[in-house]
Amino acid sequence: MSVTAMPAAAHHSMAMFDASKEITITGSVKQFQWTNPHSYIQLTVADANGRPVEWSLELGAPMYLYSKGWRPKTLKAGDRISVRINPLRNGQPGGAVIDVTTPDGKSMANLRQ
Amino acid sequence: MIARAFFSATLLALGASSAALAQETGRDARVETFAVLPDWEGQWLLENNTSSIGGISDSILAQRAGEAAPPVSRDLFGFAPNVPWNEEGRKRNAEARAKSPGRKAEGWGFPLMMNSAAPIQFVIAPEAVVIVNAYRDLRIIRTDGKGHPPVDDLWPTTWGDSVGNWEGGVLVVDTIMVRNPNAYFHGAPALSDEAHYAERIWMDEEGGLVAEITITDPVTLTGPWKSVLRYVRDESYDRLLYDSYDGDRTGFDGEYNTIEPEAVE
User: Fold this and answer.
1) Residue numbers of the domain that contains B175
2) Closest residue of A to B107, CA-based?
3) Residue B78: closest CA among B261, B221, B175
4) How many domains are contained in chain B?
5) Per the confidence metrics, is the pTM higher than 0.95?
6) Is residue B7, in this structure, part of any structural domain at all?
7) pLDDT in tens, A21-30
8) Which site among A13, A22, A86, A110 would you substitute to test the B interface, given the most B Cβ atoms closer than 10 Å to its Cβ?
9) Cβ contacts of residue B16 below 8 Å, gap of 6+?
10) Number of inter-chain CB pairs under 8 A, A vs B
11) Candidates B45, B48, B52, partner chain A, best to mutate (most A CBs within 10 A)
């Protein structure tokens, strides 16, 4: 068992995400789910043909977000963001969030700084 | 003490019942006991174990990026290198690990809640020390001197039965009857119900909390399994945050967990 498959905070195994791959997707927030044991960003992203695809992007529990300065209204529907993720292994449109950046390139990894 | 004597004399002078006096005396004794208990207020996080917004260890993310990062203790996990598993222990842990990729967890349970990424809070009173975390894991360590109940009054639970006492500033804890295999966190060590957990928890000179835990188990271990964990007060939490599990969208695709596509309304 490697530590990359068992990160500190996840309540489930992280083997579902491919930690060897990182991709960045940009889109519009459809919904920000401030929920336990994981929060999620539902992000509408245009595919290669320009069709909208909804991605499910997994964040940590609210307590971890809170400690980084996030709050339930940090993201709102319609916000434009880029998200760097480890994608799901099964090819579904989803992944584990590594970082979120605003349109001006500002990282939201730690809003307390 | 002078105030208490004056209060007692006044009660007698007013003809108060002896029951009322005993109640007041007991309350004062409790206040005095309370006053000498340690102050471990705040949210305590395992040292170097902050989490990113994605719920991934900051230390692990830094390591992936090729940066120097302090190690994070996983000493109480089933796969920790310091566990003296016997053949039965290795078998149980292999079975538990085989199920890991496709299962959820409901929290951390004991002992892993003491080695988790979730901050813990200590609520200290004369009768008990309560340890709780944001996953609603709950330990009530009775310090009333009554000890464990008779064995026929106990059954294995996810957090076991804990009693303790104070040796100066050291909380000494004895825990038995922890249910195994643990239905909670998938990294939990696959000990048996017969495991015994002895802890000593104290504040060090730098203001951190140190927990020394020794586990013995005649079923799965060849000898005592000793670990030392350290916690630091994390000021980024202004209170213990906790909630239900309404947002668990973990699914299973037949090989791995996945994210269920349905959005939570």
Assistant:
1) 43-240+250-259
2) A11
3) B221
4) 1
5) no
6) no
7) 999 999 999 9
8) A13
9) none
10) 177
11) B52
